[in-house]
Amino acid sequence: MIGAVRKRLFVAVVVAMFVLLPQADKLVTAPYDSWTHLFFASHYLQGWFASVDTRWYLGLPVYGYPPLAHQLLAVVSVPFARLGFDTTDALTASYTVLALVCTALYPLAVYAYGRVLVSKRAASYGALVASVFTGWWALLLGYGQFPTLVAAVVTMLGGAALYGALRTGSRRNLVVATLLTALVPMTHHFTSISFLVAVYLVVVVTYATRDAETGVAGDSDWRERLLTTARRATPVAVGSVALALLAMFPFVAFLVTGSSQSPIPHGSRQSWLEGAVWSRPQPYFTLVTGGLFLFLAPLCGLFAYRREDGPALFAVALAVVCGVLSLGFTTPLPRILYPGLAETLTYFRFAAWGGFLLLPVVGWLIAETFDDGPLGSIHGHHPTRQRIVVGFVAVLLLSQVVIATQVTNLGAASPDRRAAAAEVGDFMSEDEHWKWRYLTLGMSQELGLVGIEAPNAQTVDGNYNEGRRPSHVPVLANSSAAQLSSAKFSPAGRRVLDHYLTNNREMGIKFVFSADVSYEPTLREHGFEVLYEWEALDVRVWHDPTTPPALEREPSPARQPTWQMYFWGIVPLATLFALLVVISPSVVTSLSSGADRAPAD
User: pLDDT by residue (tens digit) across 405-419?
Assistant: First the structure.
C-alpha cells in the first residue's frame, strides 16, 4: 500500500511538470499579473528595506502587499544575475524556477491536507487529480497569481501540521504549524482570511468530531475533546498571529491609515445575470477553474452523506460556498461574508480554492470506485447507472487534462511587448530622460516590465491599484479608473487620462509611449508630437517639448527605511528558514500520516 501511494504521488508530480514545462516559455508573458510581481521583486533588489518605490504612482508603498513571495523572487534571481543575466532575465528565471518548485509541492500539499480527511490511498488519488485540476493552472498560467498559489500550498501544509499538533500535542508539530500558519499572511493577505480559514475549519471539525481511536464519528467526550482542541490550537493561533504581526506591522498600518478609494469595476465581481459580463474573460476562467467541483460536488456530497462522514461533508459544503463566491455579485454572499471588502476583492480564485477543498473527497470517491464501493452505495445495485457515473467522472477528468495543457492559449490574446518595454527602459535611462515622467498607452500588462527596464524613471500610472495614494496621484486615486495605460476601456479612464495630458507640464509628463493608434487623436489634441516611431515594435514615442523637468537629480528608488521595515525585510525569510530547520524526517512522516484513523478504503 505505501509503495503504491508513493508511486501515485510521484506520478502526480511528474504529470504536473508535464503540464507546466511545455507552457513554461509563456509563464511570465501570458498571465496578466506576472510582471507586476516581478516589479515588486525588483524593488527588493534596489532597496531591501525601503518602504516606498517612486517608479509607480509617484510613490508606491511596497508594504501594501505582503513581502515573502516577492522577496523569494528577488533572492533566487541573485545567482542568475551573477551569471550575467540582466535584471529582467534574472527575475524571469527566478519566477520560472519558483513556479516549478511550487507546482511540484502542490500535489504533495494536497495529499498532506487530504490525509486529514481520508486514507493514504484516497489522498494519493486526490493528489493525482490535483495535478490536472485547472484551478491551479488557470491561476498560474492564466492570471499569474504566484503569491496566491504559494500561500495555498503553505495553507494546505499548515492544515496538515495543525492536525498533527492536535492529535499528538507534540511541541515540534506545534512549532511547525505555527511557522506555516504565520507564513500565509506574509505571502498573501486575502488567502489568510479566506482559504486558510476554510482549511483550518475542516481540520478542527475533523479532529473534534472523529473518535481518537477509530477515526470515525464516535461517542467520545465532546467537552474533553473541545478543551483539548482549544488547548492545543491556542498556542498555534497566538504564536502565528504574533509572528505575522511582527513582520506585517507596516501592512496593518497601511490598511488602518490608508485612504479609501472608489471601487474599480472588475469582471469577476459583476453579476452573471447581467449580459455584459459574458463579453469578458472572467466567466470563462471561473468555469474553467470551477469545472471540477461544479459537477463533482453534488456527487461527493451525496457520497459523504451516505457514508455518514461529517468532516468530508463539511469540506464539500465549504467547497460549494467557494463556488458560489466565485460567481461574484450574482448572489449576495460576497457582501454578507466580506462586508466592507466585497467591492475590492476578485472572485475567480474562489473557484480554485473550492476545488482544493474538494480534492481529497474526489480522491476518496475514485479510490472506492476502483473497489466498486461508493457508486453501489449511492445507486444500489444498478450497474448501468454505475457505469454512467464512472464515465461521467472519467470524461470530466479528461477535460481537466485537456484544458490544463492549453491554458496559456485559451485566455485573451495579448501581444508580447517585451522588446518594446526594453526600448522604453533604454530610452528613459539615456540622455537624462529620467528627469521627466512618462506614460504608456496600450501596454498595461507590461507596466511592471517597463518599470524594471526603466529603474530611475517615474510614471503616475502603475498596476497595483491598492498602492495609489491620494496625496500623490489624487485624481487617479479618487477615480474608478484602473490603469491609464488602458484608459480607453472606461469613461472614467478617459477622463483621468485627459486630466493628466491637460496638466502634463505641471506633472512633468513629457513622454508618452503609445502601442495603440486609437489614442493618437487625444495626444495630438493635447499638443503632443511624434518623436520616434519604432515600427518593428508597433510603438510610437510622443513628447511635449515644452514640458519642464520634474526632477533635478536622479531619484532615489525609495524612502529611507523605518524600524518596521527592518522587520518586514527580515522576519518573513527568517521564518521560512526556521521552518526548514525545524522540519525533520519524523515531522514529514507525521504530516503525511495525517488521519491514521480516517475512514478506511
Answer: 666 555 544 566 778
Residues 6+ apart with CB under 8 A from 592: 111, 112, 115, 120, 160
Kindly report the average pLDDT of the chain as a whole number. 84
The per-type count for the chain, helices as H runs and strands as E runs, is: 26, 6
Q: 66: closest CA among 161, 237, 193? A: 193
Q: Bridge partners of 459? A: 56, 438
User: What are 213's three cell numbers?
Assistant: 481511536
Q: The C-alpha cell of 136 is what? A: 491551479
DSSP string covering 250-274: HHHHHHHHSPP-PPPP-TTTS-TTS
In three-state secondary structure terms, 194 is coil
Whether 315 and 357 have beta carbons less than 8 Å apart is answered as: yes
The span from the CA of 539 to the CA of 97, in Å, is 31
At residue 378, the pLDDT reads 47
- Residues 601, 126: contact at Cβ < 8 Å? no
CA atoms of 39 and 453, how far apart (whole Å):
10
Going from the C-alpha of 233 to that of each of 169, 182, 203, 241, the distances in angstroms are: 9, 14, 11, 12
Query: What does the DSSP assignment read for 510-569?
Result: EEEEES-GGGHHHHHHTT-EEEEEEGGGTEEEEE-TTPPPS-SSPPPSSPPP-HHHHHHH
